[in-house]
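Dear colleague,

Following up on yesterday's call, I've attached the two folding results inline so they're easy to grep. Please treat them as preliminary; we haven't cross-checked anything against experimental data yet. The first protein's sequence and structure tokens come first.
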Amino acid sequence: MRRTLLLCFIHGFKGDDNTFGGFPEHLRALVSHALPKITVKAVTYPKFDTRGDFGDCVARFREW
């Protein structure tokens, strides 16, 4: 079974899907090259509305 390394990028409250630019993919490519026997994936947590109940924000993050 091939192992997988997940690089998860979570932006701040004012960030969005473009906060990191091309950095996640660039880092994924570098790590993949350094660890050829491991599948490396990079994901960015999607933009979310920060208004409202903090518990709702936590629940959405946990569902993701």
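Below is the second protein, in the same order (sequence, then structure):
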Amino acid sequence: MGKYSTSAEWADIVPIPQNDGGPNPLAAIAYTEEYSEAMSYLRAVMADNEKSERALELTEHIISMNPAHYTVWLYRANTLFDLQKQNQSNLEEDILEELKWLDDISLKHLKNYQI
């Protein structure tokens, strides 16, 4: 059992697993269970076009495991802006908080070109 599958907060989401091309893929990537689970939930969130605080938390978790995942960065940025448009957050505060978080990430991953 993983972090998301056992969480009541994520009970309404049906994860979409990675499709590597059938039961015997030619070159499947050996992701960790934690990363595979988080990405399965992100695929489901993205398929529903959910823009929420929990989606931001999910992207943060995935970025902590794979800071070079461009799609996750883009979805995170779009979620931040959409939340502001929905009046669910204060853009200036969110951007300052995001920049602080980005500063920490960028110092840990100096060759991350997605930032």
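For the second protein, one point worth flagging: The longest helix spans residues 91-108.

Best wishes,
A.L.
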